[in-house]
Amino acid sequence: MKLTARSAGGYEVTLTAGTHTFTADEPVPVGGDAGPSPYALLLGALAACKVMTAYMYAERKGWPLETVEIALDIQRIHARDCEVCESDPDAKINLIEGEVAFHGDLTAEQRERLREIVDKCPVHRTLTSETVIHTALVETV
User: How high does pLDDT run on average in the chain?
Assistant: First the structure.
């Protein structure tokens, strides 16, 4: 999967992924609020992956999952403020917190299993694993 981004003036960015084109921007007063911020897009990718993963799992199990709702928030905190963090207490970390609701005629056990499953989606795994990003400079004509 390849995504391209091109500046569209100010902080506005046009993103293209396959046949889909969309806009990202910073909110006012920094940008023009022409689209979601980069962090909103990141949370959107994570939420979408979790929803899709829940549907795939429920479909495979034959469970009556109707809709999934996920709310996510991201913030930077000191590691000492995180109950499950083992890093330097003075370090700053990114904390993503969320809530999920599964709608449908599901048992409590099925809902709990789906809650466990959404934390195994590929985007969640990418964000919680070691990731290497390399950006190469390309010469322009």
Answer: 92
Whether 59 shows a pLDDT value over 70: the answer reads yes
Stated pTM of the model: 0.88
Q: Print the domain residue range for 113.
A: 37-141
Residue 84 has pLDDT above 60, yes or no: no
Q: What is the count of structural domains for the chain?
A: 2
92-98 contacts at long range (C-beta below 8 A, 24 or more positions apart):
96/43, 96/46, 96/72, 96/127, 97/72, 97/73, 98/47, 98/50, 98/70, 98/71, 98/72, 98/73
Indicate whether 10 and 31 sit together in one domain.
yes
